[in-house]
Design a protein that fits this description.
- The complex is a heterodimer.
- By secondary structure, chain A is an alpha/beta fold.
- Chain A folds into 2 domains: 7-130 and 289-300, Aspartate/ornithine carbamoyltransferase (Rossmann fold, 3-Layer(aba) Sandwich); 132-285, Aspartate/ornithine carbamoyltransferase (Rossmann fold), CATH 3.40.50.1370.
- Chain A contains 10 helices and 9 strands.
- In chain A, strands 7-6-5-8-9 form a 5-stranded parallel beta sheet. Chain A has a 4-stranded parallel beta sheet with strand order 2-1-3-4, with helices on both faces.
- Chain B is of the alpha+beta class.
- In chain B, the strands form 2 sheets. Chain B has a 5-stranded antiparallel beta sheet.
- The chains are: A alpha/beta, B alpha+beta.
Chain lengths: 315, 158
């Protein structure tokens, strides 16, 4: 497998097998067991756009497995500002590293980098395109909570138009036969071409502007941030965004094992009162970014994750 | 009869290429796709909207003293996939060629999505569109994965 650019690069069997690896790596990700599977390997972190969780969790994943990381650093002070092409940057980093994690504002940049590179590329987000490593950690989180990915009822809520996270995730969930409910304001609806693509692949999709009414029989509620700048004026934003906020009191009729996820950062779409409920799973989800990326790094570097990993106890 | 009459609209050529069965109104696009409009000094004749048994109406182009290559003709797959092409030598048809649409259309047109990596002209990349379906034609950018609007796409000839 050369790299991971979109979820289409993985079969359902490969997804499940990587999630199995991730599960066994949990004690390593939590720092209870030291397992230097990637000792001597170097990850190049190329983030041409700001990133907190993705960049840090890649770095943590690599270091927990005994590997090392080199960073592009701030784009404003790198050779990119001097006008270096992405092709040239990739050629350079390709020579320095064994694998590259990359985020770029232009859609298609990850595929372009993969065509130019010898080492595997992990797409950490390309414009409004794909974000497959986020999808893998989302799938890990859902499977961790429900024991399966098959046939769940999943609500994706908020900004479905610009969010690459929900685009990649809805494609993946369709492959596992999940029922999808897209809850968003008209302005931020899931792009028609994606909905068409999903239905062509057999998805059961419902589109609604109503979030709260759909919660009662959902297994997963995946929230996203609605950004002010998408609206013409602040009044319109306040009016619309208000319908896509969750408070603990909205969850009374929810299924006991329903989980609430969010790629973070959140602003005020999930009230802090939700944090203490059994449904809140977003911080666990952020942690799962480390373990999912550990499993992906091993897979793409051709390193087998042992079948049994001893749990070293308290970190 | 219609066939003979069409052929008499422009004189027979001694040597060169005849492109027949171009969908009506697409002849200018074909010239543009083949860069014949700007790079050629040889005589070019074109008839538009002439009767055709098979198509109702069609366009025909004749390029004198130039034999178009298979690679050049394959560029036409986007606008005239069913065009018939004949290479003429000494007033006779020496070769018949068909347009072949492969699995990918490379360096013919560029992706129509404004935020695609291919819009950065400094990047030394090949413009690659993957053929997803043939009837009707469906293309997606190899890089950004966006489906392409064919009407929009033919304005992006390279």
């Amino acid at each position: 497998m050369p790299g991971l650019i979109t979820m289409d690069d993985l079969s359902n069997e490969e997804i499940m097998s990587i999630l199995d690896d991730a599960e066994r790596l949990l004690p390593v990700a939590e720092g209870r067991t030291y397992l230097p599977l990637l000792q001597g390997k170097i990850l190049g972190n190329l983030f041409f756009e700001p990133s907190t969780r993705t960049r840090m969790s890649f770095e943590t994943a690599m270091k927990r497995l005994g590997g090392d990381v080199v960073n592009l650093g701030d784009v404003k002070t790198s050779s990119v500002v001097k006008g270096e092409t992405l092709y040239d940057t990739i050629q350079m980093v390709d020579g320095y590293t064994d694998i590259i994690a990359m985020r770029h504002p232009r859609q298609g940049a990850a595929q372009y980098a993969q065509d130019a590179a010898r080492v595997p590329i992990l797409n950490g987000g390309d414009g409004a395109g794909h974000h497959p490593t986020q999808t893998m950690l989302d799938l890990f989180t859902i499977r961790q909570a429900h024991g399966t990915l098959e046939g769940l009822k999943v609500i994706l809520a908020g900004d479905l138009r610009y969010g690459r996270t929900v685009h990649s995730l809805s494609h993946a969930l369709t492959r596992f036969g999940c029922e999808l409910i897209f809850a968003s304001p008209e302005l931020l609806k899931m792009p028609t071409e994606i909905v068409n693509d999903l239905t062509k692949h057999g998805a059961n999709v419902t589109e609604t502007e109503e979030l709260l009414g759909s919660i009662a029989d959902a297994d997963v509620v995946y929230m996203t941030r609605i950004q002010k700048e998408r609206f013409a004026d602040e009044d319109e934003y306040t009016k619309v965004a208000g319908a896509y906020k969750l408070h603990a009191s909205n969850l009374e009729g929810a299924k006991e094992n329903m989980i609430i996820m969010h790629p973070l950062p959140r602003v005020d779409e999930i009230h802090p009162s939700v944090d203490g409920t059994r449904h809140a799973r977003y911080f666990q989800q952020a942690f799962n970014g480390v373990v999912a990326r550990m499993a992906l790094l091993c897979r793409l570097l051709g390193i087998k994750v042992p079948e049994v990993i001893a749990d070293g106890g308290e970190a | 009869m219609a066939q003979e009459h069409n052929m008499r609209r422009v004189t027979a050529i001694r040597n060169g290429t005849v492109i027949d069965h171009i969908p009506s109104g697409q002849a200018m696009r074909v010239l543009e796709m083949l860069a014949i409009d700007k790079s050629t000094s040889v005589p070019v004749s074109m008839v538009m909207n002439v009767p055709s048994k098979k198509m109702g109406t069609k366009d025909i182009i004749k390029v004198e003293d130039r034999e178009l290559t298979q690679d050049e003709l394959n560029r036409l797959a986007l606008v005239a996939p069913d065009a018939r092409v004949a290479i003429i030598r000494a007033y006779s048809v020496a070769e018949k060629l068909t347009i072949e649409l492969g699995d990918e259309v490379t360096n013919v047109v560029s992706c129509t999505f404004s935020n695609c990596i291919t819009t950065n002209h400094r990047e030394p990349l090949a413009h690659r569109l993957k053929v997803m379906a043939r009837e009707p034609l469906e293309l997606r950018c190899h890089y950004c994965g966006r489906p392409q609007d064919l009407e929009e796409l033919i304005h992006n000839v390279l």
